[in-house]
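Notes for week 9. Today we move from apo structures to complexes. The key idea is that a small molecule is not decoration. When we ask for a structure prediction with zinc ion present, the ligand SMILES becomes part of the input, just like the chain. The input block below holds both the sequence and the ligand string. Read it once before you look at the output, and try to guess where the molecule might sit.
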Amino acid sequence: MSDVLVKCCGCDTPVDPHRAVCPGCGHCLCCGRKRARPEILQCVSCQTAYCKCCGRCPRCLSLRYSEITEPCECGHPDRPEVIQQLIDQWSVDRPLTRWERFWKR
Ligand SMILES: [Zn+2]
Ligand SMILES: [Zn+2]
Ligand SMILES: [Zn+2]
Ligand SMILES: [Zn+2]
């Protein structure tokens, strides 16, 4: 696991690219196929309603759809090169450019 987050193409939620399913919208991070069926609205461990935008439980901070781990038909998240591609394209905290680093000093 890395701590790089990528933006989900479906709902703009920052997600760990190693997750099979976006906790916000339940779609595959790579091809956008809907994986979560039926949609889960309450936390499985404490029955609190998940946040509607990012899918995190406000009480125990667990993420929606964590139980979906088997890879999608497109192979995600089992292919490192696809994960790298997601990181290159959609990384939320890409490294700063030289000028950004200069101005933030
Ligand atoms: Zn999403
Ligand atoms: Zn997929
Ligand atoms: Zn949220
Ligand atoms: Zn919870």
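Residues 80-90 form the longest helix (11 residues).
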